[in-house]
Each structure stands twice: as structure tokens, then as C-alpha cells.
TrEMBL record:
Annotated keywords: ATP-binding, Nucleotide-binding, Transport
Species annotation: Youngiibacter fragilis 232.1
Protein name: Peptide ABC transporter ATP-binding protein
Segments forming a coiled coil: none
Entry-linked InterPro entries: AAA+_ATPase, ABC_transp_ATP-bind, ABC_transporter-like_ATP-bd, ABC_transporter-like_CS, Oligopep_ABC_C, P-loop_NTPase
SUPFAM superfamilies on file: P-loop containing nucleoside triphosphate hydrolases
Domain ABC transporter: 6-257
Amino acid sequence: MNDYIIEFSNVKKYFQLSQGGLGKNRKIVKAVDDVSFKVRRGATFAVIGESGSGKSTMAKMLMKFEEVTEGKILVDGEDISKMKDKDTLKSYRRKVQIVHQDPTSSLNPRKTIKEIIEEPLIVHRMGNAAERLERVRELIQVVDLPVSFLDRYPHMLSGGQKQRVGIARAIALNSKLIVLDEPTSALDVSVQSKVIDLLKRIQKEFNLTYVFITHDLALVKNFADYVIIMQKGNLVEEGSTEELFNNPKQQYTRKLLKAIPVIGDDEQAFLDRIQLDEYTISM
Ligand SMILES: Nc1ncnc2c1ncn2[C@@H]1O[C@H](COP(=O)(O)OP(=O)(O)O)[C@@H](O)[C@H]1O
Ligand SMILES: [Mg+2]
């Protein structure tokens, strides 16, 4: 088997804007501009960049929600732009899943948690009703939620709990490649680290490859193996997490690193105490 599960070769995605000029004067957004990289199987591969740098567009191309303008994306050595017929696409969708940024808008409010986690199993015709229920019960426990939550609706869950449901659904089909598009940026900091811990545990348990998209470099340090830095559609720097944190080559990367707050033990204890006080006051 190929060491690399994903290979981007000179990938471009240009959007033509409908407003703003006609013919030659039409405005073009170069969302992703000539980007190449490889993702090692089983790794956590972080894509870092400010808002608008092209991260979600890369995820959408990888998911086949958007076609590439130019270049090639190989997944398991196969050119995904060549996948056109319904069956090929369907089997590709079993292989790659995504966890979205905002769990509130990505979970259908009219469906129960059971129905939400079961949906991919139904779409891909996995098992009968009893076998699917068994699988759903197993999945909710994998993400550390009680089985009693299966009858609830998304609005009855906290942000972190909803994101756990999103993760359970993403692994329901045993997909080996999971795209995490800012999975914790809608969550409180204390909840963020718990979700990251869960993702780490699941990755080991099921041998997953993660493409972890974030604008938050602080989250990456103890999670990712390899990092690419995106700026305005261009890949400006890449390296192992250690290399990048210890020896950033680009001015831009240094700027991002400097923006990470450094918290010592005393300060952390102080902050914890303040939070506790605030909590007590608001009770
Ligand atoms: N469907 C689209 N049509 C036009 N422009 C788009 C579309 N999707 C994304 N863009 C533009 O492409 C750039 C990259 O967007 P995106 O990939 O969402 O960035 P990020 O996820 O890093 O915030 C932005 O300038 C955005 O406005
Ligand atoms: Mg985005």
C-alpha cells in the first residue's frame, strides 16, 4: 500500500464571481492556487491559515463537493476528479468523511441523535434495523455519550456533545480518512481540549488519518504530526510539527507562532481561580 493516503499536485481552485465586471473584467478569486502536499497514512495532518486562506475549499475538493480547476488530487493513489459515476462516488464517500465547524448547523434539528448517527448506515445500506441500532449504540458509547441520548434532539445537547455526535456519525461507516474542518472552534476552550482528547483516542483505536483544519496554531502542537501553513490560497510553509514550532522559516509562520498565548503554571492557576469565581458569582 502507498505510504501516502492523499496527494495534492498543483491543485488550483478559482471561483469566477458573477458580479463585478463582464468578459475579461470578470473577477476571479484564487481560493487555492497551485498547492501540492502529501498526507501520510495514519497521521494527523494540520492545515493552518487565517480565515479566507483556502482551507475549507481544499476540504470541499477532497470531499468531492467542489471540482478542482486545475491539478490533481489522489486518494489511495486514485485520481478523484475521474470519479464521476454514482456508484464510484458513493464508495468514495464511504472512505472519506467530514466533521464540520458548527455542530448546530450541521446536525438536522428535526432528527433524533439516533436518526442522525444512523443516516449514513441507511444511505449505504448497512445491515437491518436491529443491526443498525446495535451499531448506533456502540458508536454513541465510543464518543463517551450515554445511550439515553439517542432519543434526544440536537437542541437538547451542549456544543461539545453535539460535536461528539458529529464525530460518531463520521466514523459510522468505518471511514479511514476524516476531515476535521475547525471541529472545535465553535466550542469553549475547556470543551475544546476534551474533544481533541477524544479525537486522539479514536484515531488510535480505529487507525484514522486526520486532515485537521484550524486557524488556531495552539491546538496543533500536541495533536498534529505535520503542518502546512496556508496564506491567501498559497502554501507558504510546511514541516513536521516539531520543525515548524522550533524552527519556523517564514516570517508569516513566526508571526502566527508569536500570537499563541504562553501560559505558565502560576498564570494558569490564577486563570482557573478567576473562572471559578465568575462561576460562583453567576450562580
Ligand atoms: N463558492 C465560492 N464562490 C466564490 N468565492 C468563494 C467560494 N468559496 C470560497 N470562496 C472564496 O475563496 C477564498 C477561500 O475561502 P475558504 O476556503 O472558505 O477559506 P477558509 O476556510 O480558509 O476560511 C475566500 O476568499 C472565499 O471568499
Ligand atoms: Mg473555513
